[in-house]
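TOKENISED FOLD:
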Amino acid sequence: MTAPIVIAGSGLGGYTLARELRKLDKDMPVVMLSADDGGFYSKPMLSNAFAAGKSAEQLLNTSAAAMAAQLGIEVQAHTRISAIDAAAKLVNSDRGPLHYSSLILALGADPIRLPLRGDAAGAVLSVNDLGDYARFRAAIKGKNRVAILGAGLIGCEFANDLAIGGHAVDVIDLAPLPLGRLLPAAPALALREALSAAGVRWHMGRRTAAIEHDGGALRVVFEDGSAIGTDTVLSAVGLVPRTALARAAGLGVKRGIVVDHHLRSSAPDIYALGDCAEVAGLVLPYVMPIMHAARALAATLAGKEQAVRYPAMPVMVKTPALATVVCPPPLDATGNWASTASDGGMQSLFRDKAGRLLGFALTGNAQSDKARLAKELEPLLG
């Protein structure tokens, strides 16, 4: 019997790959291994579902059993992989060994945990999946104050959503402005002001040292000894790709699992996809790169070699206080940002010395230029 294609992970990458494979081949055996219940949901919804009153159950789109039936695959839920034997082409899990024809690592990423002191450091929450979201909703039920560690994309989206939902929100970050890794100063300042008007309080340029119990509440203690009170602490300081299994199996690992333009790792017939993958030097934990990579990999696995091509892929920031879209320049790009404000919006363009557009950020009604500017950008890969 032919060994199946084994997909390790039931997130957007894993299920998109399975769906694209079925478009190309109705019969190839596919087994998906999921550490959780294997249900399909939109992970980006986790950071803006609270104000809409969405429970974890309401965010679940399709159960694992329904996905398996829909796609004609086998989904093994609550299954954890303990090791990969690349030479024997098998994975060992708590269900036993499983041989594969191709193995796709779509393992995702873990929240970064800050090295915090204090007797309540263990009470810090993070939201990285549907179970986390359910626990977070339960933790803030009947409570008012939420402190968010991190003013990046997820931190700002949660801040806006919780403020709309009536919570008192404090955001803490070492950076001087929110979304400092994505936005230039002018739109970042505009976003800060818009979220301030929505009720968000900022503690920028501050390092959190400890989380302590304070009666029935909590205290966030900064490095200089000052502190603020809160009821719940949410950490949103970023993600780190899950690479431990790949590293233990001898695969190449840097920031993520190192793969080429065809998503191939350093071991034969092992591929990586999604948040855990470093594709030709790029780690892109966003929806559109994952979708493009999954389509290309499906073609390759179906026998038609296809390299992944990343066109310009603007990132939508889900902050209703100031609608924002950003297409950041490559990390190694040299050039300058120039921002132009108009009634109801701001356009920020990053150009090199030759005048080529390498990135942009748009707020408010300036987002109407998104499609035109995206066409002017060169693809990241392709």
